[in-house]
Design goal:
alpha/beta; 18 strands; Quinone Oxidoreductase, Chain A, domain 1; 6-stranded parallel β-sheet; globular; single chain; 7-stranded mixed β-sheet; Rossmann fold
């Protein structure tokens, strides 16, 4: 079968790959659509020591079962393969399982015509949900999980909060769209790429600005900040923008570590929340939200064939596309 291989820093190649085999409890899927995630871009740049080339990346997928129980089922799935027995798994917080492995990292991913996955990871798709849109379940669940955590900490209901999203990539875009769906009126998105800024403005209908031009909200004026980049610069910007008593939700993982203003965090009683991925319940809720139109018409998503995957990575890297998400079709 054909697969898009990560073969080295800034290098993706379409090559032959062995057919997947079913392990105990696995099914084999035909991949119908697969998204390019920011973490895949991070690996592409050689910044993720957990993803060692040569390997098949990809974990945002819509697929059909072709071998094993449930042949013909139209599905997406949880790419986190967890133990099911630890305290976090039994609490329904399986994203925190210490024994988790991951599709596209510790086992072959979805940038291929077919892929094996444990049957317990599968989530059924409604017939009304477009296949390309279904491939956004994983990033949509990440945004949903982050907002649900944030709403527990906000002093006022989310629709009443001034909200700033740092980063107009897929997570930032989806978080902004979900904020709109939840009724947030005072919303702004910071994005350095002018093509993406225009795309966010059209899709979300909110204020956008280039943070490099020092535009946007004044310091200490925002109730809720979502850092969907996770760089040293955006962490500093988030803490500068948030009001005393406000909330900063940290989703992005661009930089692994940096200093933050702990004095301001403490004296201003700012809540800083880290979030990792989603639970299986979040994934199911994201499927329902996508099918129900909570994320809009998703016209900003770009579709390309898997055979053009290497160029898609290069275009995203160079900022040559307005799309916050490119979905590949094997």
């Amino acid at each position: 079968m054909k697969a898009l291989w990560y073969t080295g820093t800034n290098t993706m190649e379409l090559r032959e790959a062995p057919e997947p085999t079913r392990g105990n409890g696995d099914v084999v899927l035909r991949i119908d659509a697969v998204g390019i995630c920011g973490s895949d871009m991070h690996a592409y740049h050689g910044y993720d020591p957990r993803r060692v080339p040569p390997m098949i990346l990809g974990h945002e997928f819509a697929a059909t079962v072709v071998d094993g129980p449930g042949v013909g089922r139209r599905v997406t799935g949880n790419p986190l393969v967890t133990c099911g027995r630890c305290e976090f798994c039994v609490q329904g917080r399986n994203n925190l399982c210490a024994d988790r492995t991951m599709i596209g990292m510790s086992r072959p991913g979805a940038y291929a015509e077919r892929m094996a996955i444990p049957a317990g990871c599968l989530i059924d798709l409604p017939a009304t949900l477009d296949t390309v849109h279904a491939a956004l379940t994983e990033p949509a669940a990440t945004a949903l999980h982050a907002l649900n955590l944030s709403m527990r900490a906000l002093a006022r209901p989310l629709p009443e909060c001034s909200t700033l999203v740092l980063g107009g990539g897929a997570i930032g875009m989806l978080a902004a769209l979900l904020c709109r769906s939840y009724g947030v009126r005072g919303l702004a998105v910071a994005e350095t790429n002018p093509l993406r800024r225009d795309s966010v403005a059209r899709a979300v209908g909110c204020a956008t600005f280039d943070p490099a031009s020092r535009g946007g909200p004044r310091d200490g004026s925002v109730d809720f900040v979502i850092d969907a980049v996770g760089s040293k610069a955006t962490r500093q910007a988030a803490l500068a923008a948030v009001k005393p008593g406000g909330v900063v939700m940290h989703i992005g993982l661009q930089d692994w570590a940096s200093e933050i203003d702990m004095r301001r965090l403490t004296l201003a009683e700012i809540t800083l929340i880290g979030t990792y991925t989603y639970t299986t319940a979040d994934l199911r809720a994201a499927v329902d939200a996508l099918a129900g139109g909570a994320f809009g018409d998703l016209a900003w998503v770009e579709e390309r064939p898997l055979a053009e995957g290497a160029m898609a990575f290069a275009d995203l890297d160079a900022g040559r596309t307005a799309a916050s998400k490119i979905v590949l079709r094997p």
